[in-house]
Structure formats: structure tokens, C-alpha cells
Design a protein that fits this description.
Layout (H helix, E strand, L loop, with lengths): L6 H11 L7 E4 L9 H16 L3 E6 L9 H14 L6 E3 L4 H13 L3 E4 L3 H7 L17 H12 L9 E4 L14 E5 L13 E3 L1 H12 L3 E5 L6 H10 L8 E5 L11 H9 L14 H7 L3 H11 L10 H15 L1 E3 L1 E2 L2 E6 L6 E6 L9 E6 L2 E5 L19 E4 L4 E9 L5 E8 L17 E2 L2 E2 L4 E8 L13 H4 L5 E8 L11 E4 L3 E5 L9 E7 L8
Parallel strand pairs: 1-2, 2-3, 8-9, 10-23, 12-18, 16-19, 21-25
Antiparallel strand pairs: 4-5, 5-6, 6-7, 11-22, 12-15, 13-14, 15-20, 16-17, 17-18, 21-22, 23-24, 24-25
Helix pairs in contact: 2-11, 7-8, 11-12
């Protein structure tokens, strides 16, 4: 957590100072109906960050009150993502653990005259709800007796009624200026098998009813959620107070959700992409899910750093995607080993070099502890075609006819001859090694400004590389609909030649392909056939405001 206080921490500091709370307890409450995305990372960092800062507690609680959309696959993925991000929960809980408690609370409200069973359809309830400027109309079932409501509610629980035939509504105020307080539905009939409770229940609580009960029952002190729940806070407090939970009662606090340019923050649309086969799954490296970002090679530390940098605010705003990439690049610059790869190989024959040797090359000059690797070198190598110019522009410091350049970690070479093919294109180069120019032991006296990467032709490994772009195109002419902005060219597969050391890489190992970008070994790799995902490029054009 930052040394600078945000408004949530100011509230917590005051609650501790006044004795309102003694131990801070937060929770992260995802619904297991999809995979977590980067927007959830901000909430995770806030809730677990508060736990760490105040030596408190933070529970992981699955809000599984909608069995028709939830699955154990999502439960397991969420647990894995949270652990990968570096957080540890105190208790693992489910909203369904409290279904008996919620049912008892609903019965209590009925007995207090604060809830009633309605036979209205969802459409009828909507039509009677009113507008922001006009009050709602009372339900024709609003004045049912307590005994009748209890009888009907028990019959709902016992499976007597079909889906949609009856609901339980809170009895609050149909004239309230807050539409959420106009007798909201708190229970509905739903005959669906639940991933946790099986077929025990055929009625399920609504989120706005379940959530405050869960918080109060667990002793959550600060229920931190995104800004769209601000208008729901009066209902949250009503439920806690009407169900007679003791002090200290949980306090709901809202913060601005994370929005990133050209990034999908809709779990529903992400699921649509998966269901329609437009991506390789929830963990497709183009997806903004945490599992997708992990597969793409984004370090967990970089995501935590990003969330720390953008801070916690009360007003919604949008963060540039380049800011996230900058955080990723900063972390990888410190942690990713350097290797050499050539995407557009040009054959170079070293005419005065015989035999083979292994050169010692530094892995990462920015690492806390320097390490080295052995790189094979022989008579024939590959360089990238972009590093040779037959007709060079001014101030060109790479290889050119009769020019010199240093091979990274190896020798200075001189271009003696250019071999052209039948189309007049450069086919290969004949070069000579400058004597006594070996890196680290250079007494040649030859000065060069250019240093390029290369690979040994005899031992080079063919690798498959996925070049990745955003799943969304830029907004043009005000078109913001995701369906119209899907980027059909977000994935491009290319091949490259790289150092043989990459054959020893493990899935999720990250590298800087020197002078190209950062890449991570993907799980689709097979023995001798590495597949790499592009993480970010080397160039960082982002300038924080």
C-alpha cells in the first residue's frame, strides 16, 4: 500500500481512533460466473492491501446466489488467480453457506411486517416501480397478512410454485426518491441445481439482500465495492438494521472502478467471446482476464504496481492502456533474462572464421545478481534483415557494404561482399571477423557505434511467436459497441530463429528478445517446438500526467 492515504484509509483510521472498530476486516466477494479480469485486480489490491496495512483480515467469499450462471470451474480459477496475484485470504466462504441464515432473516422481516409475497411478474413489478421523477405504485399484494405471507413463503421454499410465479419483496417505500428502496425483490423461485448446495433450495436470495447479511454475519467492518453500488447503500443499511444485526455493523464504502482504454471490462462480453470461439478460452493471452494476462506474461508484481500507481478515487475515470504496459515493462526490465532472436533472418558467412566456440553472455544487466549463459558461435550466423542496408540512410550505425558492426557478446564483423538473388534482393552476406575484437577482450582498436543481435545458424531453434494486439479497435465516429469494435487482426503468428538456450525454458518463463521486445513461453509449446507470446515491446512512449 502507498505511504499516501486514500479516502478509504482515512475512514478506517477514524473508525479505529474512535473505537468504532478494533480489528479491520474486509472481503473480496466475486460471483463465480466467469474469470476475474484486470478490473478485479484493483479491488483485490484494495481489500487485501488494507488487510496488510492494518494487520487485519480479508475473506474470500463467493457470492453464489445465482446457480444458473455459476460453476466450480470459475471458483477454482478465481482462487488460482488470487494466489498468483500474491494474496492470501483468511477464510474461504460462500454466500450459499448462509442460505439458512438468509431464510431466517427473510422470515424475521415477514413477521415484522417488512416483507411480503407478491404474485406479480417481473414486467409488472417494473411497470409499477415508477421513474426517477414519479413515485411507484404499490403492489396489489402488499397488504397480505403476516400469516398468509409466511404460509406462501414456506410453500415457495418447499417447491410448490414454478419459476417466476412468486417473489418475496421488502416492504419499504414505493415513493422513495431512491428507486432501489421501492419494495425491492429479495427472494425469487428458481428450480436450479446449485454447485455447492445441490438441490436443497428452490428459492434463492437476491444479491442486494444476501450481501449485507453475509457481511454482517462475518463481522466485516468495511464493505468496499465499486461506485455503481452507491445507490444501493441505503438498502444495504436497511437490511442490516431490519434484521437486527448487532454493532459494529458493516459499513459500505464505494470507490471508482478501473477503466482502461481499449480494454474489455465486461465479464458478460468476455464470456461471449469465449462461447463464440473468437478467442482460445478465458486464458487467451489477448484477454484482460487475470489468467489471460498471466499467460501473456504480465508479472503479478507489475499488476500490483499498476493498481498502486493509479490510486483509489471516488470519481470514475479512464486509464491509458500504455500506463499498464509501462508498469509491465518496468518490472520485466529488472527480472527478464536477455536472449537473442531473429525474426527476419539474413544469412551471414564469416569467411575468415573456422571452428566453433561458446561465448559467455550476460543474462540481465539490471538483475540484482548478475548471471551468464553460454551462446554457441560458428562460421555461419543469422542477423535480422532490418540490421543491414544495401543503401544506408545518413547516420546508419548497423551493417552496410564495407561497414562494421558489433555482434552482441561476440565480435566486430566487416561486410566484405553482398550476394544478391535473381530478383536483386539481398540473399546473404560474406563478412570477416575483425581480429582481437571479442567482447570483453577487445584490443582491435576498431570503434563501432552499432551493436546487433544474431543467432548461430548451426544451433538456432525455430520458435513460433504470437504477436498480440488489443481485442478492441479504437473508437471511431463514436462507435463504442464491443460487437462492432472486435479486432479481427488481434493475433498474428510468425516464426523466428532464436538461441538454443530457449529449449530449456519453462512455461511462463519471460525473456527480453534483445532489441525486439518481451516474450513469455506459452503452455502450447511442445518438446523442441517453443511457442512464445508477445508481452510488450521495448519502447515506452507513455508519459504520466
Amino acid at each position: 500500500m502507498s505511504e499516501f492515504k486514500n479516502f478509504i484509509e482515512d475512514i478506517i483510521d477514524n473508525d479505529l481512533a474512535t473505537g468504532k472498530v478494533k480489528t479491520v476486516c474486509t472481503r473480496f466477494p466475486p460471483e463465480p460466473n466467469g474469470y476475474l479480469h484486470i478490473g478485479h485486480a484493483k479491488s483485490l489490491c484494495i481489500n487485501f492491501g488494507i488487510k496488510q496495512k492494518y494487520n487485519g483480515k480479508c475473506n474470500l467469499r463467493f457470492d453464489d446466489t445465482n446457480p444458473s450462471k455459476e460453476d466450480t470451474e470459475y471458483v477454482e480459477s478465481i482462487k488460482s488467480d488470487i494466489e498468483w496475484l500474491g494474496f492470501k485470504w483468511d477464510k474461504l466462504l460462500f454466500a450459499s453457506d448462509y442460505f439458512d441464515v438468509m431464510f431466517d432473516c427473510a422470515v424475521k422481516l415477514i413477521k415484522k411486517g417488512l416483507a411480503y409475497v407478491s404474485d406479480e411478474t417481473a414486467e409488472e413489478i417494473r411497470l409499477r416501480r415508477g421513474t426517477l421523477t414519479e413515485p411507484g405504485q404499490e403492489s396489489p399484494y402488499r397488504n397480505r397478512s403476516v400469516d398468509e405471507n409466511l404460509k406462501l413463503f414456506y410453500e415457495m421454499r418447499d417447491g410448490k410454485y414454478p419459476d417466476g410465479s412468486k417473489v418475496l419483496r421488502a416492504k419499504i417505500d414505493m415513493a422513495s426518491p431512491n428507486v432501489n428502496m421501492r419494495d425491492p425483490v429479495i427472494y425469487r423461485v428458481l428450480h436450479a441445481t446449485h454447485h455447492n448446495t445441490g438441490d436443497k433450495w428452490c428459492i434463492y436470495p437476491m444479491y442486494d439482500f444476501a450481501h449485507p447479511i453475509e457481511d454482517a454475519h462475518e463481522g466485516i467492518t468495511h464493505s468496499i465495492c465499486t461506485l455503481e453500488f452507491e445507490d444501493h447503500r441505503p438498502l444495504y443499511d436497511w437490511v442490516v438494521n431490519s434484521c437486527d444485526f448487532p454493532n459494529p455493523k458493516p459499513q459500505q464504502i464505494e470507490f471508482a472502478r478501473l477503466n482502461i482504454t481499449n480494454t474489455i471490462m465486461s465479464k458478460r462480453y468476455l464470456k461471449k467471446l469465449v462461447d463464440e470461439g473468437k478467442v482460445m478460452g478465458w486464458d487467451d493471452p489477448r484477454m484482460p482476464t487475470l489468467s489471460g494476462l498471466r499467460r501473456r506474461g504480465y508479472p503479478a508484481a507489475a499488476l500490483r504496481d499498476f493498481c498502486e500507481r493509479i490510486g483509489v478515487a471516488k470519481a470514475n475515470s479512464e486509464v491509458e492502456e500504455a500506463y499498464l504496459c509501462s508498469c509491465v515493462r518496468d518490472e520485466l526490465n529488472k527480472t527478464a533474462d536477455r536472449v537473442m532472436a531473429v525474426f527476419d533472418p539474413l544469412k551471414v558467412v564469416l569467411t575468415n572464421y573456422e571452428g566453433t566456440e561458446e561465448l559467455t553472455v550476460e543474462n540481465n544487466p539490471n538483475a540484482q545478481e548478475l548471471t551468464y549463459r553460454k551462446v554457441p558461435f560458428s562460421k555461419v550466423i543469422y542477423i535480422d534483415k532490418s540490421d543491414f542496408a544495401l543503401v544506408p540512410p545518413p547516420k546508419y550505425y548497423r551493417l552496410k557494404p564495407d561497414g562494421v558492426v558489433r555482434l552482441k557478446g561476440a565480435y566486430i564483423i566487416h561486410c566484405d561482399d553482398v550476394v544478391l538473388d535473381g530478383n536483386g534482393e539481398v540473399a546473404e552476406l560474406h563478412c570477416s571477423v575483425i581480429p582481437n575484437s571479442k567482447s570483453g577482450d577487445d584490443t582491435s582498436g576498431v570503434k563501432v557505434k552499432g551493436v546487433i543481435q544474431w543467432v548461430d545458424a548451426q544451433t538456432a531453434v525455430d520458435v513460433t511467436v504470437r504477436k498480440l494486439q488489443s481485442l478492441l479497435t479504437d473508437v471511431v465516429d463514436g462507435v463504442t459497441d464491443f460487437n462492432q469494435r472486435f479486432n479481427e487482426n488481434s493475433l498474428k503468428v510468425v516464426s523466428a530463429k532464436a538461441e538454443k538456450s530457449l529449449l530449456n525454458a519453462k512455461v511462463e518463463d519471460k525473456f527480453q528478445f534483445m532489441r525486439v521486445g518481451y516474450y513469455v513461453l506459452d503452455k502450447d509449446s511442445k518438446d523442441g517446438k517453443p511457442v512464445f507470446n508477445e508481452i510488450v515491446g521495448l519502447k515506452d512512449g507513455f508519459k504520466p500526467q
